[in-house]
Automatic annotation (TrEMBL):
PROSITE patterns: N6_MTASE
Organism: Prosthecobacter fusiformis
UniProt name for this protein: Methyltransferase
Any Gene Ontology biological process: methylation
Keyword Methyltransferase: yes
Length: 262
């Protein structure tokens, strides 16, 4: 099995060729179903039931190839129109072990609604295979600013100030609400994919759920963000992508990223 490569092809067929319990982490950003109405890949299912049935198959394959202590992250979105993900989460949590539900706070809203609040978040369902999972909380700490550290060190309840200072300088543990600005307008990182996720967000997922040299799978590689996040942190990776244009986009981004390291 060749690693650090993009497999061009159907996700289910490609997954079925991979061996059991191979990947430490799976990061999946699949079509959301009729959210991007101008994209054929997001509107290809005639009914929600057909979409849900397809998702059950590829998620099942992702859990099969996941290691026993691995985590599988699945992106989704809720809204008045784009609410199929809530049904998918229910089904998947009946079939697999629930681990967490992460809220990606996009920092800014999108698609103003006439009769409801402006959406500002997406969701990441986290599934596992066993109770004993690899999770590195220190990898996703959030730094305190100098003023906050100084203020906390004045708290008389802490007798060992050196230990307290060491803890504060490491930063606070992240919650399951991850605030990472979405890629808007002329953001330099944008490369043309309509549902491209920020590198900073995917980097957090890779960091917390894998160690150096672990193998990360992205079954919907798209623009290649997961590959870059993995390589940038010393992980190995494999991506699956059925769209030829996106496959080329991912390879070009990787080429540019690798060149920037040399």
């Amino acid at each position: 099995m060749k690693v650090n490569t993009v497999i061009k092809g159907d996700v289910v067929k490609a997954l079925k060729k991979l061996p059991d319990a191979t990947f430490q982490t799976v990061i999946a950003d699949p079509p959301y179903y009729n959210v991007l109405e101008d994209e054929a890949w997001d509107t290809q299912w005639k009914t929600p039931e057909a979409y849900l049935a397809w998702c059950e198959v590829w998620v099942g394959e992702c859990l099969r190839v996941l290691k026993e202590d691995g985590l599988c992250f699945i992106f989704g979105q809720l809204g008045k129109r784009e609410h199929t993900f809530i049904h998918l989460m229910s089904r998947l949590c009946h079939q697999h072990a629930f681990h967490d539900l992460i809220i990606w706070d996009r920092a800014v809203g999108y698609n103003e609604r006439r009769d409801s609040f402006t959406p500002q978040y997406e969701m990441i369902l986290v599934l596992r295979k066993s109770e004993d999972v690899k999770f590195n909380k220190d990898a996703v700490r959030l730094p305190y600013d100098a003023q906050t550290i100084t203020a906390y060190l004045r708290d008389p309840r802490y007798k060992d100030l050196e230990a307290r200072k060491s803890h504060l300088e490491k930063g606070k543990f992240a919650t399951n609400i991850l605030r990472v600005p979405s890629l808007k307008g002329l953001t330099k990182e944008k490369c043309g994919h309509p549902s491209q996720k920020p590198l900073a967000l995917i980097t957090k997922l890779v960091a917390c759920a894998s160690d150096e040299n672990d193998l990360v799978l992205d079954p919907f590689l798209g623009s290649g963000t997961t590959a870059i996040a993995a390589e940038g942190q010393g992980r190995q990776w494999m991506g699956i992508e059925c769209n030829a244009a996106y496959t080329q986009m991912a390879r070009q981004r990787l080429k540019k990223f690798r060149a920037s390291l040399s």
